[in-house]
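S.,

Sequence below, as promised.
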Amino acid sequence: MTAKRFFQWGGIASAAILVAFGIAALVLGIRGGSTVNSNLKQEYIFGTPDMTPTAIAPEVQQIQKAQSQLAAAQAKAGVPAAQRFTFTKVTAPSGSVAGKLVDGGSRARVFAQYMRIHALGASSGLTYSQMGRYVAKPGTPIKFTDFLGATSDPKYALVDAKTKQPVSNGRRDLWVTETALTSALNLAYTASQISLFGIVVGVALLLAGIGFAVLALGGALRDVRVPKLHRSPQATLAGGPSA
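The prediction came back faster than expected:
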């Protein structure tokens, strides 16, 4: 009876702990998801009309064409194969957010994918690290440029007459802005997935706790017997060892 009570109370205690953790995980998960959605709604982000797989397809094709032209230009200029651009893959997202309010993590992720396509369209398919830092001055050898009129070599940079500083590459600055925005949107998506995971874990803990409670209170251990050593009558008469 003592062992039975011990296991029963142990099961009840385990059930209470699991239920408590389950409730806590549920509350945190729900609150986290609500915070993400609320913050996104406050930004009033709506998808533009071209943010559908069909509508964005022409821009994707233009980017791919621009990348092919840049590759041909580098080959024509005699740029070694090891130094030529390795272009990022450009594909249309599978989802659509055209005209829709970005009010959740899933839509934020899709919106960020379309933003990346827009940024690649402005850079002819080049990423931030592939573009030159400055606007190249006239007469700059093409091999010292990014083949879009920019260079990372200060001696070939166009200098602003007022500030006496190299003129920054506008395409590269646009990419910085795009990366900051898409990173925030992707972070919102990540946070929403974490909150969903917390909810799932919370439900699992609650079910496990309820199961422990049912087993403990339902008398699942009522047939437990604690074995103890005893001596059989035959062994006692013969002076043999305990059975």
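The CA atoms of residues 47 and 99 lie 5 Å apart.

Coffee later?
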